[in-house]
């Protein structure tokens, strides 16, 4: 099974984790809770009328947990390097293998730099619409790839784009995560059965 490692547990990282795990990829997420969301109150996130950032984060974390993301709360990633056909991700507690890495570390671009990712003139990580960097299999999301557009909804979209690109690579064709009422009822029912 494909192994996706996500570094960062803000809206971008959690969104990438949700899309990847929901669609059958083995997904591990490292979250040190350094997100700016704890200072935010959301009025501008489509579909959310008004919610505090910490409350939003609690809901988002529960959602990715429900969809099977292996979330490591408080475990800091200290390094990522190419290893064979994939990557070795080192944390304070151990080492993990990954086929893909999604970097969602806000404006901290140290891991992207250590991997040799190309940067743009404004010191952001250079990515395309898929959020893939110049290093194949490595994605940069949110504030890593945007100089000043640090909005939760934009970051969540970047995370989704990265995960959908990984899914498309794995399936060999463009992949769309689009639920309809019948499949949504099935997915929701499976979640309820898993909790019982």
Automatic annotation (TrEMBL):
GO molecular function term, any single one: oxidoreductase activity
Ranges that cross the membrane: none
Keyword Secreted: no
Domain FAD/NAD(P)-binding: 3-38, 54-154
Alphabetical list of Pfam families matching this protein: Pyr_redox_2
Keyword annotations of the record: Flavoprotein, Oxidoreductase
Cross-referenced InterPro entries: FAD/NAD-bd_sf (IPR036188), FAD/NAD-binding_dom (IPR023753), Ferredoxin-NADP_redctase_2 (IPR050097)
Protein name: Thioredoxin reductase
Native species: Halorubrum trapanicum
